[in-house]
Model the fold of this input.
Amino acid sequence: MGMGAGVNWRLVVVLVLMAGWMVGSVPLIRAADGPTMRTVESQLLAKAALLYDPQARRVIFARNPDEPFMPASTIKLMTALLVWERTRLEGMITVTAADTKVVPSHVPLLAGETVRVRDMVAVLMIGSANDAAMALARHVAGSAEAFGPMATERARQLGCTNSRFVNPHGLTVQGQYTTANDMLKIFQKVLTIPELKEMARTPRLQLVTRQGIKNVQNHNRLLGQYEGMGPAKTGWTIASRHTYAASATRDGRELQLIILNSPNKWTDARLLFDYGFANLPPVRGRLSEAKPELARAPARTTEPVTDGPPPGVPVAVPVEDVEVMPMTVARATPTTGAEPTIRPTRYRVQRGDTVYRISRRFGVSMDDLVRANELTDPDRLMPGTELVIP
Done:
C-alpha cells in the first residue's frame, strides 16, 4: 500500500484552505502598528506629558503629570474660558494703549479701536494674540493684574490644585505655573463649549481692524497634517519651551494630550498620539464603571504654592511668545562621528531650516540662538538670512 493510500486528499485541501481563510480573517496586532511603550519612554522629549482616553476614562501614558511647569500660551485656554463664562462672547471691547504694550504674537490692535468680544476670543485661540489676551482680561476682570487671581480661583474650582496664574497670555513671569493634570482639566472644560472648541480647530480667519484685514493663521502645525487632529492650543517661550494641549480623533475614539516643557512638541505629539491610537484600551460596560489609572508615574501630591514659584520652576524676564515650529517633525539624529564638528560663527539660513534644526546641527541651545540674533519671529526664518552662531 502506497504512502497516499487511505488519505482523502480532497478533504485535506479543503481543510488547508479553510485554515488559511480563518487565519487571514483574524486581525493581527503588529508591533509596526505603532511605537511601543519602551520607544515612547526613550524618545519622548517633554519633561511632562499626559495622554488620556476620555471614553474609557483612562490615562494611557503619563510622565511627571503633577510636576509644575510654566504654561506659556496654553494659559489662553483659561482666558477664553473665563471670557465665555462671563460674556457668552457677546459685547464689544475698546482697546487701550496698555493692551497693546505686549510683545508678539499680536494682531496687532490699535488703541481706541473697538472689536467684538467674539472676534477677540477667536484671534486669541487661533492666532495666540497677546494684545487680545490683555484686552479680554481687562474686560472680564477689570484689569490685567486682577485676572491672575480670578483665573487661579477658577482653576481650583475645576480641581486644579497645583496651578497659579498671573497673566492672561502666558509670557514668562515669576510665580506662574501649572501641571499636565491641571491643564488637562482646563482643556476638557473648554472642549465642552462648542464655540471655543470650533475656534481651537479653525485653520485661519480674517479679522477686520482699523489697519485693514488681518489674516490670522492657527499656530497648530499638525492641524490638517496629522490624521484626526482636532482642537488644540499651542504655547512657547524661551523659558517654558514648547507646551501643547490637543485632541485627536480616529474611528470615533478621541485622545487628549498635554505636553509641557518640550524642545519639540510636534515630534512628541506625533509619538504619543501614534502610541495611543495603536494601544487604545477597550471600553467595557458603562463609562461610569471605568476608572482612571496612570499608566506611568503615579500622581504625586504637592501642597499648593501661594507665593512665588515652586522649586524647580525657572524664572526669567518676559520674552516673545512665538511658536518655534519646525517645517518637519522628523527626529534629529545626533552626530556620532569621531572627529569634532567645527562650528562656524555665522550661518546662512537655507530653505526648510528652523531654529530647532539649526540649534541641533551646531550644538547650541535654541535660547542662545534666539537671543544672539534678536529673532522677533523664530517660526519664520527667511532663506538667505545670516545668523550668528553663539
